[in-house]
Amino acid sequence: MNILLLADTHVPRRARALPGQVWAAVERADVVFHAGDWVDEALLDAFEQRPQQLVGVYGNNDGPALRARLPESAAVALDGVRFAMIHETGPAKGREQRCEALFPDADVLVFGHSHIPWDTTTPGGLRLLNPGSPTDRRRQPACTFMTLTVDNGTVRGVQLVEVHR
């Protein structure tokens, strides 16, 4: 199962539209996770028109219309891997302990907000993944998203993908 992780798209504030490279990754994915800060309902509509499974949450920059359509956090099991997702996890210091306490039943936690890619595993085995932003690199060298594969209860091949403009 091919999975795409996105967050912090900020369309149309940070970019008029998602780059073609991102839409191509959406088309290749079996499941798309979006960890919030969509900003515009039209982007959510565009994702919902595609056949891939979409798992989305709202972020701090998402207004009432998006909050009415998306949850604050989500949980889904895919091929034996338990995923959770939320937009914000708080400061980097203490993140692993906070997330383990908040999501004790998850194997993988997808999050966003910082626009800073993150891939760590907590002492208790929770994998924390932040794909960065495909439209707003902030202080990062490039805009990014993540891909991974789930196969028979195992996460494989987590890859941070640089968005070419």
From TrEMBL:
Note the NCBIfam families from the entry: yfcE
Name the UniProt key words of this record, in alphabetical order: Metal-binding
Q: Give every Calcineurin-like phosphoesterase domain span.
A: 1-152
Pfam families listed in its UniProt record: Metallophos_2 (PF12850)
Please identify the protein, giving its name as recorded: Phosphoesterase
Q: What is its EC number?
A: 3.1.4.-
Name the source organism: Pseudarthrobacter enclensis
Q: What class of enzyme is it?
A: hydrolase
Instruction: Identify the cofactor(s).
Output: a divalent metal cation
Q: Does the keyword Zinc-finger apply?
A: no
